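Each field is set out as follows.
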Amino acid sequence: MQLQVAAFSIRTNLAYLVHEGLAAQTLYQLVGLSREQLDEADRMVDVSVSETLLTYGAKQLGYDDLGFRIGMWGDSGRWGLLGHLVDCCQSITQALELQHRYQSLVGNVSRLEFVKGDSLCTLKWIPHYQCSYHLNEEVVTSWVAFAKKVIGLKLSPREIHFTHEQHGEQQEYEDFFGCPVTFNSQYNGIVFDQTILSLPLMGYSPDLLKVLTGYADLLVSKKHKNAASEVITQYIIESLATKVPSLEDVAAFLGVSSRSLQRKFKLQGTNFKSIVDDVRKEYAFSYLLQTNYKMSYIAQVLGFSEQSVFQRAFKRWTGVTPGEYRDRHGIPKDE
């Protein structure tokens, strides 16, 4: 499964590193893209490019908390068109709905998991690979920075969670977030009051929102017609918890024929069964390394009928059981 991010998402990181004194020309050479290419709305690049930039920047600047710093510094422009869309939304609820609808515009490296309780909500960020802690911190911090900007009130989340060990100063994190920050947690994400969902946003512009959603629909439609890998991956991931999608399901979603989709896969040297298997495998790695969810839950969200079926599949992929895989990577056992 090829994991990709939108080129423009790298733009914010590069701009921050230049702001901190690193040479722009060196950074453009490092990512292999020009300034103009980073601005292209539909250009996708391998996620390794983003990780390379973060690793290089942290080493050159000596910032153990680089992702946290970038998350505070950047604005919603880091998400390109999707960022401009959420800027125009009426509420956080609408922003979350549009994020889900247009996720493919920013890549296929992660998914959001939103849990709504009686009074509190939890928004989790689950990457589809073992990403750097810098990226974990950048994403979660940017959510809070966005909320602070668009709500315009002195509100803070209830809790912040990161799965990795602490690298920066605890007090600096808590000063920015305004709440307890837990490292070595079960997930990456935020817990906040449910009332925040319906608060009016300062930048609400229904006319501009209508124009931007129209443009976003065109871009997504183009991806569907081209059977873009990030669109197919995201569809498979979102379908697995309820059913394992068929080739016909994906073709219907994309608005193309099953035969043409099959031909496309053949030209790429693969087939639909292998693609689904790859998505499940990478997704399994993500859940096993990025959370300490129970094996039964992971099996369910991956579309396996039973935990034992998931365990057999995982051993076929890796030669070890899911539990052994966690042990090798120092992940606490699920309780």
